[in-house]
Design the sequence.
């Protein structure tokens, strides 16, 4: 019972953060879920629930989605998701994955902090940039469910309007996660216990993202990102120290 409450609370807070800032659900949730679930089930649960969150937001801002802009980055991101499928399938239950996740989470927080210090640059117009971002983000997102910051960085530079940034970011999550979930579904990776956590999580994330979207319109993102970054960093340290 307490385990279900703990999982519900994690997913609710993570979805609230994503609704308010456009990302953060995977970063927050993957720092805590592996404490009570297997690494593989944690990743699959976060990917499936991110699909619900992102679809909800993408529909809300659908008028701002730019299909042509998504093509270049998503084609390489999907290639990265194929590679991540094999890595997660063969190594998803090993202890080393928890420690790697801890390093990735800490690295993501440092990455976000450093990227915020950089000024706007037009380098995203070079074809190699979305290719690299898509491939790396696709691999990390498929293995650890925390590839969002790479796409956040790209779309923040690509669009100055927050609605365009959020709409295209969420649309990319919908496409990538749908692709990954289909791969794992065909492979038979979803168990009966997963379905229970998914149904519980669906309630949590729909409530969380609804509140978060209201914050998106009113509150400064810096406060939410600072708190989320602190929690994610602490979770990464915990995974390194105690896994």
Sequence:
């Amino acid at each position: 019972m307490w385990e279900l409450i703990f999982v519900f609370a994690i997913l609710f807070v993570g979805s609230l953060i994503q609704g308010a800032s456009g990302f953060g659900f995977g970063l927050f949730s993957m720092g805590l879920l592996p404490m009570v679930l297997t690494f593989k089930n944690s990743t699959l649960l976060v990917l499936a629930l991110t699909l619900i969150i992102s679809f909800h937001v993408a529909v809300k801002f659908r008028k701002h989605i730019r299909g042509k802009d998504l093509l270049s980055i998503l084609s390489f991101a999907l290639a990265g998701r194929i590679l991540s499928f094999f890595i997660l399938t063969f190594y998803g239950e090993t202890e080393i994955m928890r420690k790697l996740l801890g390093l990735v989470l800490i690295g993501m927080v440092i990455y976000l902090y450093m990227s915020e210090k950089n000024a706007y640059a037009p380098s995203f117009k070079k074809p190699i940039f979305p290719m690299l971002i898509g491939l790396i983000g696709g691999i990390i997102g498929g293995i650890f469910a925390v590839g969002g910051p790479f796409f956040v960085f790209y779309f923040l530079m690509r669009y100055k309007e927050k609605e365009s940034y959020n709409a295209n970011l969420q649309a990319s999550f919908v496409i990538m996660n749908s692709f990954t979930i289909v791969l794992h579904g065909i492979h038979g990776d979803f168990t009966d216990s997963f379905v229970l956590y998914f149904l519980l999580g669906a309630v949590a994330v729909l409530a969380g993202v609804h509140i978060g979207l209201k914050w998106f319109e009113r509150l400064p993102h810096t406060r939410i990102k600072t708190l989320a970054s602190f929690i994610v960093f602490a979770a990464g340290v915990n995974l390194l120290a105690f896994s």
